[in-house]
Specification:
11% of the residues lie in helices and 44% in strands. It is mainly beta and 348 residues long. Strands 1-2-3-4 form a four-stranded antiparallel β-sheet, with no helix packed on it.
């Protein structure tokens, strides 16, 4: 009798588990739309955002992920084009200066050039790289590889124009100066380096108070470089001298991203679920854009929490009025001045 009762309980337990599992799956596969834009939840939930970029005219946002590249309307959040081709994760993307093409670097050891309007793969070059950037004139691509070299590549042919050697470990991030004459890079060797584009000569190596820099950017006037490190600190450097100009602290989480405003007066960095905006000249905290956690909680109660907590990528729109912040599965578009959430692109 006891064995029979035990068998019945086992069967009931299995049936209940199956029902609850199906219910949870239904909640994921058929979420309420509510505050999400139409068509936002169309991608595989295990996908993960790796990088986002605004088009030069600010009308579109490109999203690189572990499952491809997507292009969205920056005003409506609607999906415009998908870029199939990479096999595996897409590490980084960048728009060309004229906004007609996108360059991407993938886990499949290729660099690809895409037509923005059609999503067609125009050219494919085989390079094992992590980060990429277009030169201001669009004729050259700078890439940093997983070992320790930087490559200047011809955009049309993929031909290696120059190899920049000096880092002793892999490259985390690269950037062109606004005038296209200088390149900056940060690597796993805990150095920030400046290079002459025309000659490939190493101009300056900044060491010391760096603390594992992961991201670097030129100011719009090209006079300052900003870097972020694992000690939750922003550092501003003089391009000509390499002198440390300012240290900005007060961030609660490890910084993986930063962005200068188009006018160069403000610098943004993610702070867990918020975004801090700092005055470049004084280092003063101007304001904090919040609301991310409230948005997460709202979607959690509706059974459709998609992203992992925390913003780790920030990008200003070209007009400086909007700032995009991304976590693993969502892109949030905030009004910079008012601080409210304009649009949510979700479903990655």
């Amino acid at each position: 009798m006891k064995n029979r009762l035990f068998s019945i309980l086992i069967v009931l337990f299995i049936a209940l588990s199956f029902t609850l599992n199906n219910l949870a799956q239904d909640m994921q596969d058929d979420p309420q739309q509510g505050d999400l834009p139409d068509g936002a939840e169309t991608h595989i939930k295990k996908n993960r955002i790796r990088m986002i970029a605004y088009s030069p005219d600010g009308t579109r946002i490109a999203v690189a992920s572990s499952n491809g590249i997507w292009l969205y309307d920056a005003q409506t959040g609607h999906e415009l084009v998908q870029f199939p081709g990479h096999k595996g994760k897409v590490w980084n993307i960048a728009f060309s200066p004229d906004g007609k093409t996108i360059v991407s670097a993938g886990q499949d050891m290729t660099i690809r050039i895409w037509d923005v309007n059609t999503g067609r793969n125009l050219r494919t070059f085989r390079y094992k790289v992590w980060d990429i950037a277009f030169s201001p004139d669009g004729k050259t691509i700078i890439s940093g590889d997983w070992n320790k070299n930087l490559y200047l590549l011809d955009t049309d042919t993929g031909k290696r124009l120059r190899t920049l050697s000096g880092h002793t470990e892999g490259i985390w991030d690269v950037a062109f100066s606004p005038d296209g004459k200088t390149i900056t890079s940060v690597g796993r060797d805990n150095t920030l380096r400046l290079w002459n584009v025309n000659t490939g000569q190493l101009l300056r190596t900044i060491t010391g108070d760096i603390n594992s820099p992961r991201n670097v950017a030129f100011s719009p006037d090209g006079k300052t470089i900003a870097s972020v490190g694992r000690d939750n600190t922003l550092r501003l450097w003089n391009v000509n001298t390499g002198q440390l100009l300012r240290t900005i602290t007060g961030n609660a989480s490890i910084l993986k991203s930063l962005a200068f405003s188009p006018d160069g007066k403000t610098i943004a960095a993610p702070r867990a679920g918020d975004i801090n905006l700092w005055d470049v000249n004084t280092g003063q905290l101007l304001r904090t854009i919040t609301g991310y956690w409230e948005n997460v909680q709202l979607r959690r109660t509706r059974g459709r929490i998609l992203g992992q907590p925390g913003i780790f990528i920030v990008v200003f729109s070209p007009d400086g009025k909007t700032i995009a912040g991304a976590n693993a599965h969502e892109v949030h578009l905030w009004d910079v001045n008012a601080g409210y959430l304009r649009k949510l692109i979700s479903g990655f």
